[in-house]
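Appendix B. One record, verbatim.
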Amino acid sequence: MPLHLPEPPADVPDKVKGRLHAFADGGKFSTKALKGARKENLDLSTPHEVFTMGLDDLAAGAGLDHAQPVGWRYLITDGTQIIASAETVPAPDGTQEVSQFTEGPFVLGTDKAVKTLRKLPQLEKKGYELRLLRIPALYVMALWLHSPTDDLLVPLEPSPIGKEGKPVPTADFLAELSDLARNTTTPPA
């Protein structure tokens, strides 16, 4: 089974694309790649749900079941090239609203990691759903390959634990981050 891209709520892709094109029409982008792109070449790819985990959960040794869904993320293409990402967050009425357009290392790292992951033999044997795990307090973002029986995490560059772009078993990934979290939350003696 290949890498599975989850289906976002039905109205989300059109909402994100509409906002993306409105920003392009209004000349509202301030980042280089988006500012230089032509509206008719901009499109969305690789939808994945975004989850976040807090420092206290990591320090306490919590598992991925403590990760909270916080929105959706798309990679933005200019023709065939990935140039940015778009993210949504839940609105007060429960729908999703566009929260940001971003360029930078995590966007390029996502694109590179997804291309590498699609070639992994374990994806042929077992299908994984693509997710994103964000741990803001440690400046960590990782692709989360989720299946009902198994999870793998792929740290995106830059990562405080290294291993960028490589699948890491959940227990190993969380153990290393747990140590970092405890050192971050424990005041020096």
